[in-house]
Write a structure and sequence with these properties.
By secondary structure, this protein is an alpha+beta fold. The chain contains four helices and eight strands. The longest helix is centred in the middle third of the chain and has 16 residues. Keywords: Signal.
């Protein structure tokens, strides 16, 4: 999610103590599966005036997710991500993580969803000049399941941003998708983002 204030950017490195610490993978765990596939630009929620552009699939954890989701409290995984942008003020990112077991992936998906669910409260607690509200848009019946949530932030000086975030799982693989732009909940393409999330999980393998 593109964040407009340095205060919110700083949250990416703040302690996310609310997250559950996951057990590290056991030695001799299952071998790596084939690398999961990513969304293409055409599979993002359509922008009314600008086409999406997809960046390359890149190793590492995307900095833009750090406001709500981070690597803190989880084992070290091989993170891969792809960022998307339009010519205007809208962006998106997809993260994939392959865990060693389905049980670890299930715990990781819950951990990330919990971080997203509590993100608004943590933002307001850390930054009194920011009002934040989260919404739950429910689960999706795809593979081992996915959940979609929304987050709106507004600063005391009037900067306002809306994001949609989802966490889904297919076996040992977890994916997180985030879409964001300036605006509020009325500007969020929830139905289209649910379709994007379903496609993202189905497309992993």
């Amino acid at each position: 999610m593109r964040i407009r204030t340095s205060a919110l950017t700083a949250l990416a490195v703040a302690a996310l103590a609310a997250g559950t610490v996951l057990t590290a993978p056991a030695a001799g765990a299952a071998p790596k599966a084939a690398a999961p596939k990513f969304l293409s630009a055409s599979q993002l929620p359509p922008h009314p005036t600008s086409a999406w552009t997809a960046g390359p699939v890149t190793e590492g954890f995307p900095e833009g997710l750090g406001t709500c989701v981070s690597t803190e409290g989880v084992p070290s995984y091989d993170y891969r991500h792809r960022e998307f942008r339009t010519d205007l003020d809208t962006g998106a990112v997809q993260l994939t993580i392959v865990a060693d077991t389905a049980a670890l992936a299930k715990a990781l998906a819950k951990h990330y969803d919990d971080l997203i669910r509590t993100c608004a409260d943590r933002i307001e607690k850390a930054y009194p000049d920011v009002e934040a509200e989260g919404r739950d848009y429910g689960t999706l019946p795809v593979e081992e399941g996915a959940r979609v949530r929304g987050l709106h932030t507004e600063t005391s000086w009037g900067a306002t941003d809306i994001s949609l975030l989802s966490v889904g799982r297919d076996g040992r693989t977890v994916t997180v998708v985030q879409w964001g732009q300036m605006g509020d909940f009325g500007d969020a393409p929830v139905a289209a983002f649910k379709k994007t999330t379903t496609t993202a999980v189905n497309k992993l393998y």
